[in-house]
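Team,

Forwarding the record for the chain on the shared tracking sheet. I've put the sequence and predicted structure together so nobody has to dig through attachments.
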Amino acid sequence: MRFDIITVLPDLLDSPFAHSILLRAQKKGIAEIFVHNLRDYAANKQKSVDDYPYGGGSGMVMSIEPFAKCIAELKSEREYDEIIFMSPDGKTFNQTIANELSGKKNIMILCGHYKGIDQRIRDLFVTREISIGDYVLSGGELPAAVIVDAIIRLIPGVLNDETSALSDSFQGDLLDAPVYTRPADWNGHKVPDVLLSGHEAKINEWRHEQALIRTQDRRPDLLND
């Protein structure tokens, strides 16, 4: 699976993709992540990619030309299943969307900055707009890293335990049940007996019950949905 991320701050994405599961996925050849500097596609000597908004108002708007050139170059080399724009007014990202996108082959992600991007970019090129929450960040780079992480860990072969992702919170619209490890008794605080019983059916029943309780307590909206 390949990701192409277009940004004015490529260095901001160095660390998120250079460690842990994402690094392992790249080393295995399961995922490819390429970060493209939008300023490389600017036509002016200053390498500026923004301009004043028509109609006045505060802030600067990212111009259409650099995005159009970068997108055209990438699309000349391969077809993209999705061109995603990270935007606070996009559809809120969730596990269902992550599951869907994990089945794609090539995904392009556009990272906005400043006051926003020229609407024509969204109208002409973008196939999907995604938000990671009802708040505004300085740019789309961190949200892009979030969705890439959420997608890649779902691809078969990325996690050492193939079943691990299937039991994550939000799979099946439930939060995950409590988990424990050794010691079984720490200063009088004990692991539930059922987890030590070795009875798989009872353990699964306990975990499902605990997942329902936790979801009802912390995210009842998931049960309503």
